[in-house]
Amino acid sequence: MRNGRREVGERERRLRWLPAALLASAFVLDLALLNNVSTFPLLASAPVLAAPILSLRGTIATGVAANVIGLLLVELEREPTRADVTAFTSLVVLTVIAAGLNVLLTRDRQQLRTSREVAAAVQRAVLPDPPHRVGRLTVASRYEVAHAEAAIGGDLFSIHETPHGIRMIIADVRGKGLEAVRTVNALVGSFREACLHQPDLKDVVRQLEDRMQASTEGTSGAEAESFATAVVAELAPDYSELRIAVRGHAAPLLVRDGTALPLEPAVPSLPLGLGALGDGPGDAPDSTPDGDEVPVDRFELPAGATLVLYTDGINEARDADGAFFDLVPTLSRPFPPDPDAVLDTVLDAVLRHTGGTLQDDAALFAVTLDADTAVPTPDAAPGPRHGHDA
Known about the structure:
It holds the Pfam family SpoIIE. It comes from Streptomyces hirsutus. By secondary structure, the chain is α+β, with helices and mostly antiparallel strands. It has helices at residues 8-15, 18-32, 40-50, 56-77, 82-126, 177-197, 201-216, 312-315, 327-331, 339-354, and strands at residues 133-134, 137-144, 155-162, 165-173, 228-235, 242-247, 253-256, 259-262, 296-299, 306-310, 362-369, 384-389. It is elongated and about 90 Å long.
């Protein structure tokens, strides 16, 4: 799991040079103008600027350097006056104030860092990183938070190898914070249990739907309106067929031979937790108490192909003009059989699209079927193999 703001560290390193650049500019400007214009305000602002971006030692050193440069300029250009005593006394006072501000800011940053570490520990406990290998699949995942101070989100992914095949899920729970984490925890646990005990993918989806509806019973307000968009997928034990149930979520992509193919569902379905609102197979899947069908689409996962699943923090990321990010052009080029390379390419592209930041948390999950161990498949283009199950 990474932060999502990849350029923050580099930006902070550049900012550390600002106090030194300010002192150098004051010195050069004063010499160039032959003391016709006072550069004392520049010198005085240097320790104040250093307080939020440097250490306590660096802040004090900046203030000392400002005093030394000021004294040097006076010695080079004129005789010291009583006004200079007042100016340098003010500079010392500003340095002391800047040091105090630095101490307070450092304490606040430490508290924030502790909060982030706790949040990250909770996130890892609820949503541990998946194994790199599951059966014949190579697995990669990324979790990008939109805001560094909020390391807990409502996105989730999971993968399990079972006697019924390899099952995986990616989902996006409505909301953020502890309420979303509780729902994420409930869904992850329910998915793990369903993977082990439910022989059919439709039954897995039904159990997730029941769990979402049970979590909102007896609640009110925003919590009562909780739901989760999701993609639940299953790769047959012999790797010959990929079965996918899309629940109000963005369709996964199949990346192969320089093309990215969206695996769109034949019949749309409501998100998990909203199944009872529908009144037909296309509106209410068979996870609802009234017994409507769970739409499941069937595809081939060819040897060497990569299946990419993602949440709306990716496909709804906007640029400065408000245009959404499109994954298909980004992934429509040859890739090595490496899901990590595919996900890194997506993240690099979406951050360029948005100018370096994400507007919403984003989860990505990808699996690649080993080319040398996969069941041979025809040369036909990947797509629905047996069509749609309702």
